[in-house]
Amino acid sequence: MKHYIGAGNPMRAQFEPKAAYKAEHFAWSFEAGVGTITLNRPDRKNPLTFDSYAELRDLFRALVYATDVKTIVVTGAGGNFCSGGDVHEIIGPLTGMRMPELLEFTRMTGDLVKAMRACPQPIVGAIDGVCAGAGAMIALACDLRYGSPATRTAFLFTRVGLAGADMGACALLPRVIGQGRASELLFTGRAMTAQEGHSWGFFNALHEGDALLDAATKVARELAEGPTFAHGMTKTMLSQEWSMTIDQAIEAEAQAQAICMQTEDFKRAYEAFAAKRKPVFGGD
The domain spanning residue 150 has which CATH number? Predict the structure, then answer.
């Protein structure tokens, strides 16, 4: 990950995804403001390793400074999203570790979700086929999720003798699909069908597998063409207001909106409206 100090502002770190970032444990591409992460071990349904966890965490942390990256798409290769932690490369070694090492690992996996929630860019998940364990948590950490009729999402931690409380599942999942439905999935580890996921609000929409990535990328590009500073504010407030009272949230949103009203994008939108044309946003 390469950072450099921008010549125009010594406090502003920049990130060059096309020239400087070469992914080692997944595929990365960048075009027209949209960065695409592809989990690409299709022969094993794209499982995670210690290294891929860490690299994903570090990438999302760096995206805080990536002003040229406007939105992110996360997907998987070969018709599946992610089968979770690799049985042989993660699960096996974990059974031989002591508590300090185990806690270091579980904190690292949680840090991936924290990094996804903290990066200002909207994250769009294109989730096909198998989406299980840690893969389901990566999907859950996305801001928008699109699935296919073949998608099966399972928070299967209890199936391997662990609690359903993993990587923030007990906090995030009830907020998306409701407490009762989340309790069922986290206790039983059963797979949520694509149709259930759509009707429960986990998926924003379903698309056929061969059209799924294009549909998700289209949404990401539309967001990338919008007022991206304001999108980052929306994402921040969606997260922060979980722990606020209504009065606190209303005041926080008043402050957030006043900040956005100082942006050039706010002026551009007014000028475009007055001129009866579509605004071209710059993210500033």
Answer: 3.90.226.10
Number of domains in the chain: 2
Position 199 in a domain: yes
How much is the average pLDDT of 11-31? 69
283 within domain boundaries: no
Range in 2-16, 95-109, 197-211, 219-233 the model is least confident about: 2-16
Between CA 122 and CA 221 the distance in angstroms is 11
| Structure tokens that stand for 188 in this block | 């039983």
For CA atoms 136, 37, 211, 235, the dihedral sign is: positive
Give the model confidence (pLDDT) of 208-220 as tens digits. Answer: 999 999 999 999 9
Give the CA distances from residue 62 to residues 15, 21, 22, 119, 179, in Å, rounded to whole numbers and listed in that order: 7, 11, 13, 8, 33
Q: What is the pLDDT of residue 15?
A: 52
Nearest to 148 by CA among 81, 72, 222: 81
Q: Are 153 and 195 in contact (CB under 8 A)?
A: no
- DSSP β-ladder status, 13-15 and 152-154: unpaired
Strand partners, 3: 15
Q: Are residues 133 and 260 in the same domain?
A: no
Q: Which residue among 224, 242, 263 closes a domain?
A: 224
**pTM > 0.70: yes or no:** yes
| Sign of the C-alpha dihedral computed for residues 244, 248, 254 and 259 taken in this order | negative
Report the pLDDT value the prediction gives residue 19, as an integer from 0 to 100.
39
β-partners of residue 72 are 35, 123
